[in-house]
Design brief:
It comes from Mytilus coruscus. Keywords: Coiled coil. The chain is built from eleven helices and no strands. It is mainly α. It has a domain of 199 residues. Helix 9 packs across helix 11.
């Protein structure tokens, strides 16, 4: 059958279908293989994050089996345009920048990025699937063909652009396998569109559900606001009643404090008077007691002074007698020493030995002296304690000390009289 068996609008439809199903998939695959190299495609889509993204892109079991085949490796040559565009659109890529108006709108002519070319191919595939009469008018065909062929040139290169140029001038035969294949491809596009519409319907339902949820949330918020207003009114009334109660409590407490203050003031005045009288009585009795104690202490000190004076006199007499006897014995010892001035050599050696023994005794005395110093420190501490006790008695011993000073002066006079300033063995010199 000749090509003129098809009307011009039907020819336009067939040529666009052949372009979208035969030439545009390899062009899109060139970009897809750049973003997802075939060698690492399987590992790229098998990550946990990527699988989570792919779950909502799942369309039908055939395409899911293409992504994750039960045998063999994942190959982009088995992917159709819809699947490749969906993956490029939703999976992270290194260089793709989304179109200005998104993937769901036809980009403007001056926008020539790879992502905008994908949006053009997607737009015209959807447009062709919605044409149930299988006809495309000349104006739409011219615009669509220029947009699609330029996109194929940018994505796939000059070779694929030449295929587009050949396709636009090629004679079509309605009985050819190309037309049949184009119809099959169109049916595939329509099925894909049905799936997209089903997803769109589901999204609409989700939006309706969200709207109803929003309305119920708004109602609950309004109800909560109403209850909050009621609670605020109740709180205001409670605040007023509490304020009145606190005011009355404050007044009653103020009156009670005033009466307590007056009563406490009177009680303190009477206690102060009683305490003052008691202190005056105690002061008088203590003064009388101190006077009587002072008199008795004075009498006791006088008697002690007399007895001490008598004791010192007797001690002085006995000391004088003892000094006289000691003086006589020293005189005899001096006579003996004069007789023994000529000492033999043996006695000198004996004396040396005695000196050595005396040195040893001296060392032991040093050690004993160290111990005595320790004891002396302890005695000093005890003396300090005794001094503290003596300070208490100093006031009462003032009279005794004056009498002791007089007694010491008498003793010194007696001692100076008894001592001979010139020794007896020096008198004849």
């Amino acid at each position: 059958m000749a090509s003129n068996a098809l009307s011009p609008e039907e020819e336009n439809y067939v040529r666009m279908a052949l372009l979208l199903t035969g030439i545009s998939p390899p062009a899109v695959r060139v970009l897809f293989d750049k973003e997802f190299p075939p060698a690492s495609l399987s590992s790229s889509i098998n990550t946990t994050t990527t699988k989570a993204t792919l779950n909502y892109l799942k369309r039908k079991k055939v395409q899911w089996d293409l992504l994750f085949p039960s045998s063999g490796t994942t190959d982009s040559k088995t992917f159709d345009v819809t699947l490749m565009i969906a993956l490029l659109r939703n999976l992270p890529t290194s260089s793709l920048v989304p179109p200005v108006n998104g993937y769901d709108n036809l980009p403007v002519t001056i926008e020539t990025t790879p992502a905008s070319d994908l949006a053009r191919i997607k737009h015209y595939r959807n447009l062709l699937a919605h044409l149930h009469d299988s006809k495309v008018d000349g104006t739409l065909f011219t615009t669509a063909w220029k947009d699609l062929s330029d996109a194929v040139l940018r994505l796939g290169g000059n070779t694929m652009k030449q295929e587009c140029d050949q396709l636009i001038t090629k004679q079509l035969d309605t009985s050819s396998q190309e037309i049949l294949q184009a119809k099959k491809d169109i049916e595939t596009i329509e099925r894909s569109l049905d799936l997209i519409e089903a997803d769109h319907t589901k999204i609409k339902k989700d939006i309706i559900t969200l709207k109803s949820g929003r309305e119920s949330f708004k109602k609950s918020c309004d109800l909560l606001l109403t209850e909050s207003k009621k609670d605020i009114v109740v709180l205001k009334s409670d605040h007023k009643s509490l304020k009145r109660s606190l005011t009355s409590d404050h007044k009653s407490l103020k009156g009670s404090l005033k009466s307590d203050h007056k009563r406490l003031k009177g009680s303190l005045k009477s206690d102060h008077k009683n305490l003052r009288r008691s202190l005056l009585c105690d002061h008088k009795s203590l003064k009388g007691s101190l006077k009587s104690d002072h008199k008795s202490l004075k009498r006791s000190l006088k008697s002690d002074h007399r007895s001490l004076r008598r004791s010192l006199k007797s001690d002085h007499k006995s000391l004088r007698r003892s000094l006289k006897s000691d003086h006589k014995s020293l005189k005899r010892s001096h006579d003996l020493l004069q007789k023994k001035q000529t000492v033999s050599i043996k006695d000198g050696k004996r004396v040396k030995k005695d000196v050595k023994s005396l040195k040893l005794d001296h060392d032991s005395l040093k050690k004993s002296h160290g111990l005595l110093q320790v004891d002396q420190k302890e005695m000093r501490i005890d003396v300090q304690n005794v001094k503290l006790d003596c300070d208490i008695l100093k006031t009462s011993q003032a009279l005794i000390q004056s009498d002791q000073i007089k007694t010491k002066e008498d003793v010194k006079k007696l001692t100076s009289i008894s001592e001979d300033p010139v020794p007896w063995n020096r008198r004849g010199i």
